[in-house]
Amino acid sequence: MEPITDTPQAPSDTDPAASGEPSAPVNPKADADVVRAFSRDPEKRREAEQPQAAPAAVPRIVVVGGGAGGLELATRLGNTLGKKGRAEVTLIDARLTHLWKPLLHEVAAGTLDSHDDDIQFLAQARHHRFTFRLGAMEGLDRKRKVVQLARITDASGAVLSERREVPYDTLVIAVGSVSNDFGVPGVQEHCHFLDTREQADRFQKTLLNSYLKTQHREARQTDGITVAIVGGGATGVELAAELHHVARRLVAYGFDRIDPDRDVRLVLVEAAPRLLPAAPERISRLAERELTRLGVVVQTGVQVSRVSAHGLETGDVCIPADLLVWAAGIRAPAFTQRLDLETNRAGQLVVKDTLQTTHDPDIYALGDCAACPFPATGRNVPPTAQAAHQQAALLVRNLSARVAGGADRDAAFRYRDHGFMVSLSGYTAVGNLMGNLMRMSGAVMIEGWLARFTYRLLYRKHQMALFGPARTALMVLSDWISRRGRARLKLH
Asked: Does the global pTM surpass 0.90?
């Protein structure tokens, strides 16, 4: 089947330009003056008879991936270039809605309904002057400058969209990341992942069913629930704390035959010597101390060699578990290695300091799927929401200047580390705020209510980038009111 190309439709028969009708009143006297002038000047007459070049087409900017960075970029470009008709901005994503990825551990635990905070791409596109196309990128033709989209089907297998091609002049790849199983046998077959809302919803339903089964067990049965989480990064630590919180909340909703201290066991396994290896050591110690106080079994320096339906194998030791979650690292989606662009071992697109890919200056990458140099550490920019936010802001400026033709070279990306924050459910949060955010030298360690407040501000900052301050303020008020009238847990 030939791919379908998304191209602008031809003018209709009622379009004056298509029907040959003049778009402005004709001035016969002016036309006569022009004819007489040309007749007296043969050179001008010959010049006027030469074929005229067609007007320059509006630049087509295509953003693939509606995550934090991609959606912010498409929204801000739509508000500027799209609104003024200076560029045609298109966002492509395989889903119809956006959910801020750092919230997925709350969706998985059931403390957040996945539909409460999602953003509909079609509505966002309508309000912010860009075009949304449903599709999953599977390839790229750099010579023809088209993005190749895979066929889209629904849960029943019905085709929603055939394979298509979307042309571009400038392409931004912001497809995020997926969990990295590092080739460990059994991970794909037996572990849950938290890369998407669908995966988080699936885990939440499995978890709730486990609680229901335990609640209705026979009195003589003593088996409880053991959840093992592989990966002591931010996702693993936050999920462990959230699951501990949920186990105690469920008792208030009728799960009275479950004793959380006796029937629920949480195990967190990390291969590195400490939790949160990317964070300052003091934050790691605070997080581990708090999780241990909550009763979470923390095992650091433990390498998982195999996963089975019954638990984790770490050399000669087996850690039995009923539910397994893999959050031990990330890599770019597999298709990035088929794009004829430079990638690293994790499949991330290697980019220059301008976020342009090394093989094609018309293709950019941002967020988790980009390997962007960070000279201050000698490594790459960390795959965090704040990095994607900063990269999107830079590309708004660079692409706007590129459309205007006023910049010989794109400005370089300079990552500013504003600190590290991790939430331990409703109990506390720990983190540090860097000096360039606090306007003082060094870093300030925070925990408790101040850290929890700062953690929530990160999400509100994302909302402000998408909706502006006024609408975000209304959303904060609406959330505060509505959440007092509904259950604190998702119980279905």
From this structure: no
